[in-house]
Amino acid sequence: MDLTWNADEDQFRSEVRTWLAENVPAEPLPSGDTEVGFRLHQQWEKTLFDSRYSVVSWPEQYGGRGASLWQWLIFEEEYYRAGAPQRVSQNGIFLLAPILFEFGTEAQKQRYLLPMAEGIEQWGQGWSEPNAGSDLAGIKSHATKVDGGWRVNGQKTWTTRGAFCTHLFGLFRTDPDQERHRGLTYLMTPLDADGVTVRGVARLDGDEGFAEVFFEDAFVSDDDVLGGVDEGWAVAMATTSSERGLTLRSPGRFVAAVERLRGLAARYPEAVDARIADAITQAWIDAQAYQVSTLRTVTKMLDGESVGAESSLNKIFWSEMDVRIHEIALELLGARGELIDDSPDAVDAGGWMKGFQFALSGPIYAGTNEIQRNIVSERVLGLPRR
Q1: 167 with 213, same domain?
Q2: Is residue 332 domain-resident?
Q3: Which domain holds residue 190?
Q4: Torsion sign over Cα 367, 370, 372, 378
């Protein structure tokens, strides 16, 4: 594995760094999980799109630059280093889009990719249900074949920014007589369709974007079946590899978080004892290790290898590292860390507490870490099932 960058990659980094310095908002945007913040983040997504930085690795015909995976990693590293806004389009561009490129028809790509890249259409992920969280094969929401499409009934929950999204992608049971992992179909549906109800779910931090979605005889066209009828499990497994592995949590996110943590320690040196100093050092080592591991993963992918179940290792590592980084910050801040964003004495606008609250969900979403450890033990280490 070559850890050096070539001249073209260095030039790309310089261009990205310059553009971000000139365009990143001077003041942090409100949370993208609030209605006001979400609309402002949509405007930011349009700014990225207009300069073809929204989806740098996509083909140019879909708004990208045709950048390599190496260049995408560079962009992510510079993006987080610059403190740029969160990507409210992430469910679409990081989770759905790779699956559209792999399984989608040409008509589906033409219909959905450009509006997704521009931030005009926003996607929610419709997987979890009240009695099927990490047990994705246990879903009960179902679709019945009708002329020209499907009648969908059921409920999806824990939909991130679902209150503001325009569309939802997810799994629905289309053949109830087949085994759990079979008879599932991957559907894409607009959330303003007849028979679809979106209901907000209160969150600990007060943001109102979380939602649950109800389907009551909602119609989904045959044109919006992704990957074939009853073939949804294979499509979903490709999505989970993206979510748990490379695309959703690039190493630049955590390298930048540790740098902010080091800056916080420099601002409050009186709060840094030997134990906290050691913890910060370990966090830096972990972030660097995750970065090198990701470079190894990209090398394997470019050599034609599949990530597969190893993506579960990634998910365990980055989700638990994220929690540790924020725990260190809050311990360093003490009572100051409890102040929320509208307090005049809040440190970094209360961002460390808000980040901690979100980090706590990391070991749960994309499949709980308990489930991921089972996958690693069985499919990576080859241990027997109990």
Answers
A1: yes
A2: yes
A3: 123-233
A4: negative
Report helix, strand and coil shares of the chain as percent, to nearest 5: 50, 15, 35
Instruction: State the catalytic residues.
Output: 243
CA 223 – CA 209 distance, rounded (Å): 28
Residue 333 neighbours by CB under 8 Å, 6+ apart: 264, 268, 271, 347, 352
In a domain, 261, yes or no: yes
Q: How high is the pLDDT of residue 204? A: 72
Give residue-wise pLDDT tens across range 293-343. 999 888 888 888 877 778 888 999 999 999 999 999 999 999 999 998 778
How many domains would you assign to the chain? Answer: 3
Q: How far from chain centre, in Å, is Cα 192? A: 23
Q: Which residue has tokens 């047990």?
A: 135
CATH number, domain containing residue 132: 2.40.110.10
291 has a pLDDT exceeding 70: yes
**Whether residue 77 sits in one domain with residue 127:** no
DSSP state string for 133-148: SS-GGG---EEEEETT
Per-residue pLDDT reduced to its tens digit, 81-126: 999 999 999 999 999 999 999 999 999 999 999 999 999 999 999 9
Q: Is 77 helix (H, G, I), strand (E, B) or coil?
A: helix
Reference 170, options 191, 151, 182, 156; nearest CA is 156
In terms of Cβ atoms closer than 10 Å to its own Cβ (0-12, 13-18, 19+), residue 300 is middle
In a shared domain, residues 144 and 214: yes
Q: What is the pTM of this model?
A: 0.90
Please check whether residue 188 lies inside any domain of the structure: yes
CATH number at residue 305: 1.20.140.10
Place of tokens 């590292």: 321
Within a domain: 178 = yes
**Are 169 and 216 part of one and the same domain?**
yes
Both 331 and 362 in one domain: the answer is: yes
Same domain, 65 and 128: no
Between CA 71 and CA 11 the distance in angstroms is 10
Handedness of CA 281, 286, 287, 289 (dihedral sign): positive
Q: What are phi and psi of 314, to 5 degrees?
A: -55, -50
pLDDT digits (tens, 9 = 90+) for 238-290: 776 554 556 668 899 999 999 999 999 999 999 999 999 999 999 999 999 99
The reply to whether 160 and 255 lie within a common domain is no
